[in-house]
Structures are given as C-alpha cells and as structure tokens.
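Table S5 (text form). Sequence records supplied for joint modeling of the two-component complex.
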Amino acid sequence: MLDRYKAVTMGALMSLLPVKEPRQYLYDLVPLYPQRAAKGLRPGLCIATCGAFGGDPHLAVRSAVALELFHNAFLIHDDVEDGSEFRRGAPTLPAAYGMPIAVNVGDAMNVLSIRPLMENLDALGPKATWRVFAEIEHMARESVEGQAMELGWVRDNVCDLTEADYLRMTLKKTCWYTCIHPCRIGSIVATAGAVEPERFDRFGYYMGAAFQIQDDVLNLVGEEAKYGKEIGGDIQEGKRTLMLIHALGACTAREKERLRRFLAKPRAERPDRDVRWVYSLMRKYDSIEFARRCAKNLAGAALLEFVTAYGDRPASEHKQFVEALVIYMIERDL
Amino acid sequence: MATGRKIPSRKAATAVKRRKPVAKRVTREPEAVNVDEIKDAVPEAAGAAARAAGAAADAAAAAAGGGESARGEASAAAAAAGDELNALRGAVGATSRIVLQAASILEEEIAAGIVAAKKVEARFVDVDKLRGADPQEVMQRFRRDAHEVVDILIDLVNVATNSLSGLAQRVVRISEAGVGAAAGAVSGKLRPAAGAVPSLAVPQPLKPGESVQVPLTLENDGDTTTENFRFLCSDLVNASGDRIAGGYVSFLPDALAIAPRSAATVTVTVSAPTGTPTGVYSGIVQATRLEQLRAVLSVRVEQ
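The corresponding structure-token record, covering 637 residues in total, follows.
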C-alpha cells in the first residue's frame, strides 16, 4: 500500500513541476530527494486516513504532494544546517551541488507546495481548503520552531537537557508534520472537518516520536547501506538525541565534562576516536537500550491510540495500512 | 494603564473576545499500554495483534465488522497467537514514564498552538460569507500565481474581518505591563493604540424589557493560574444621558480563575428595563484583581 500511495503522490508531484528553465540548477533537482528511497510515510498517512474515513483517497493527493514537498524542503535545509554528507544513500544536495543551490531548491519546494493546496479549492470547496491551509501553516511553524530548538541546543552547547525537552522538541520538529498533520489533513479532506482532527494528535505524536527515536537508534547501530546516512553521524553532529541526553544524565561529572568539551567543538573538529568514545559511553550507560525501550513504549501507546483514532471506522485497506504501520514499529528490529 | 497588582506569571496574559466555537480540548490521562487489554477491548486491535503475530488474520478481519460473535472470534484468534502476544506485551509493557511525559507535553503544546490557530481561523475567516459576498473574485484570486498567495490570504483575512464588523477590535490582550492591544490581529491596522480600551459590542440590538446574552472566551496564555477574579460593570449610558444601571449586566460564572494556557467562557447577560429609551449604551466592564482587564461594553437599544 505504501508503494501505491507513494506512486500516486510522486505522479502528481512530477506533473506539478514546471517544464521550463532553469532546469539544471532548479527543476531537475527538485525531485531528487523524493525519488530516492524514501518511504513516503507522510503522503501515505494522509491518503490512507482519508480513505479510512470514507473519503475518496484521490482527493487527498494534492495535500499529500504538499506534505511531501514540505518534507523534502525541510530535509534539504536540514542537510545544509547540519552539514550532512549523505541522504538516502547518496550525497546530499548541498554536498553535490553546493549550499547556495541547495538552499534555493529547498525554497522552491516550499513555494511549489502552495499550488496543490490552492488547487484543493475546486475539489474540496473553500472551507476544507482553508482548514487544510491552516493545518499546513501550523505544521510548518511547529517544524521550524522545533528545528530552532535543536539548532540552538547545538549552537550554545546546551548539555542539561531532559527527556521532556527532547520530547517537546521532537513533537515540534518531527511529529506534527510527520504523523499528526498528515492524519488530520486526511480526515479533513474526507469529512470536511466533521470528524474532530484532534483525535489523531496522540496517535500521531506517539507514532512520530517512536519513529524518530528508532531512527536515531539506527543512526548508531544500523547498517550504513540500509540506513542511507553516515552511521554515528548524529554524534559527529552533536545532535541532542535521547541517547545523548540519557548518557549526559547518567555519566560521571568527569565524563560529562569531557562530553561537554567534545560537543563544544565544531563538527569538523570532532575526531573519530572521540565519536567512538561517546558511542562507548552510551553503551556503558545503556543509553541505546533505554532509547529502544522508550521507542517500544511509545509504539505500544500508538497502538492503543490507533484504536481510539480509527477504531470506529469500518475495515478497509486504508485502515489496515495505518494499523500495519504501528505493528511494524512494535516489531521493528533495531 | 496602570496595574494595581501583577498577574502571577511573567507571560500571563488574558484575552477577551466574543466567543466563537472553541476548539474542544480533550484532556485525559494516558491509559496503560497493554496489548492484552487492547485485544480484549476492541476487535480491530485484536486483529492488529493477531496479524502482528502472524496468526488468525481471517477471523480477526471478520471481527473488525463488530458484533459479539465476531468479537469472540477475534479474541480467540488473538489468543491463538499466545506466545507472540506475550512477546508483544513484554515489548510494550505498562504505561511508561516517557508516554506519560509525552502526553503531558502534547496537552501543553496543543493548548498553546492548535487552539490558538483555530481561534485565529474562527475569528477572522468565514469562508461562506466571503464566497457569498463575491465568489468569482475570491475564486479567481485564489487561483493566481503562487507568489501572490500570501497577499491573497491577507486579503481574505481583511475582508473577513471587515465582514465581521471589526470583531478583531474587540479582542483584548492584557499584559503584565497593562498595555491593551488587539491580540491575534493579522493586520497591524487593526491594532488599537497602546493603552486604548477595547470595545465589546453586543452584535444584535436589544428591545426594552428584553435581555441578550453574549458568551466571551477568556484566555490565559501565561504559565500560571490567574487569581480568582470577578467582573464588575458600570452603568451603561447613551448620548442623551439615559442610563441602564450596572446591575442589569450580569456575568456567569460570577467568579473564576483560569488555569495556565487554557480558556474559560463567561456569559454576559445585558438586560434593558422596560421603558429604556432608544440609543447606544456604553459602560466599562472591569475585572477585579486584574485591573488591566477592562473593556467598553456597548449595546444598541431599539424599540
């Protein structure tokens, strides 16, 4: 199903791209990230929720395209901000084309995402179109706020963070736009808002947080070819993951001071041996195992909330797809 | 405006506006996460657990249709997945601290974000009205090039705001410093000057001997609960000097305190005694303990 959702979304996305110059430095680059081995989770959730709530899934495709464009714009800008080198198994856009081109392509994707939302008007009517706009506005704002939190922590070398800080940042940076809003938008498209979108908030949050933590764990223990990014890149980057926050809270004062000094260095000046030391510290204090357990708990909570959010819907392939996603998270072998 | 006393929170601010439908904020404790409980409670989840275990998918899918017999089949199917479910139970366990924390954070963020966004939407935009007023113009403008979209949205807001008779001007945000300003107004033109007292106009006219109710939503955007406060109202006076005594304006509830980042609704009832002359009557509504929370209440009396 995910492949089907992705194929429909990508078809609509490609048809949206202007066939004109400048191609080499703009329009040819726009589909690069979406075409890579992305899961298409956001459009999948949006279209599936629309279908699960009795809507015509095709009506959700424009919104799904907007979500996918926003997501990939975030990724490009994220790669610029983080100085990442690989994304989905290939060089990042800034690494391959330079930072100015990459920033502009990200900007273009943000702008391009507006049109499908405007084109919702004919099919959805003004009320639902406006509501989807409002959802997107909130989604984008939350994402940049969450990103700002994380960037600020790295910039100012904040080391006294708590799980609650992490959860709030993840909610804002990831969960709203990865899970919560796709579900909410899908239901708005299906029911014109007759179903309260708030019913998806907890489900989306727990699922999004579980995904994010799992993704961060994979960054440490995954296979590079399968994961598509540099293993240990988050440590190199100084990213405040749940594992790092846990290790900072569990280690000795001396270890914490060394860790703080490591994190105070610019990314390029963090030697591999220090990255390995941070990794060993996480192992020593079971920080990775702790994060695994948190992810499992959140995935379990998402399963319960799935029942709340989708339980009163009749059986359908769309509902089953969402259900399978949660089960996949619970069973995912990290 | 001078403040008699400080609002407890640094960021505490209370906004008053005519009530539009307020986003329902469902507050509930996260329930224990236990696959068996889910399985027993809801057939679909039983199906999910069974499929996750790779067993009895057909029976569970049938159970998704609902009904007692189907539920029984689902439970049986899920039970057949015994060991796998136990493994799942071990994985998801009971409610963990992280889930509780997450639930709490979500509630806070929703109170701060989504509700505010919905209120902005409700306050400024009545798309049906827009469409009814001039559908072609709105539709055509909406379809133009992407780079115009921001202007279009601002136009929508402005048109909607105008069509709602300056509703935004009745929005009050009162800061610790006691400076009145319109809250949430997208267009700066709508903001009254600092220190201006906002107007709370009853939208429909009132006949002598009748009363009208106006629900108001009070928002506490701060981090601490406000002090318990009540509303007072001066006499309402028209341009000829005729009066409606302040006692004809009542508030329900009479007293309240608002939790941080939450909202409360007060119903204002204005009555016009028999024989009240025609005219627009205005008076000052004032909150006790929150001196900066005040506004001009006005109502038109027609025969």
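Note: Confidence is low (pLDDT under 50) at residues 1-27, 31-95, 123-195 of chain B.
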